[in-house]
Specification:
Strand content: under 5%
Structural class: mainly alpha
Number of strands: 0
Shape: elongated
């Protein structure tokens, strides 16, 4: 899901929006398929969701620090 383009060329706001879309998609897939998945697959989905949440948090921190540095 990660692409080099997202990391280097898109503004932070768009990176955050892209990650939020990915997170929403994974959450929907997990809600629909979660009951039919084995424990390993559930764990894989949950880890990916957690990684996306952490990346969104890091991007928001970077955005905040950028705003502070411009003041």
């Amino acid at each position: 899901m990660e692409s080099h383009l997202l990391k280097s060329e898109l503004p932070v706001d768009l990176q955050i929006e892209a990650k939020l879309c990915q997170l929403e998609f994974l959450n929907r897939v997990f809600q629909k398929r979660g009951q039919n998945l084995d424990d390993v697959s559930k764990g894989s989905y949950l880890r990916k969701i957690e990684q996306l949440e952490q990346h969104i948090y890091q991007l928001r921190i970077r955005k905040t620090l950028d705003l502070i540095s411009r003041m």
